[in-house]
């Protein structure tokens, strides 16, 4: 007569999406962000990010905005992602906005 071992509930979970399963080393990214105020209302900023799992894949954005408190403001942003080897654009994005300050407490953007 053979005894069956008791059944055990086994819970498994998949590793987080941002891990390499070969070495089980968590993936991350390296990012650089720069920001500068040219005057009271004008700002320029940019950032770049590279993932550790795929350093040839680069994401980036550059933006400039001018939003004075008592005048019409505006902003522009360019960004995207690309592969470095071979050099090709995966995604490119352009955004623009206008900001109307209708009173001290209400603005429309």
Automatic annotation (TrEMBL):
Residues 1-25 are annotated as: Disordered. PANTHER family: GDSL ESTERASE/LIPASE (PTHR35097), GDSL ESTERASE_LIPASE (PTHR35097:SF1). This is Uncharacterized protein. It comes from Opuntia streptacantha (Prickly pear cactus). The lineage of its organism: Eukaryota, Viridiplantae, Streptophyta, Embryophyta, Tracheophyta.
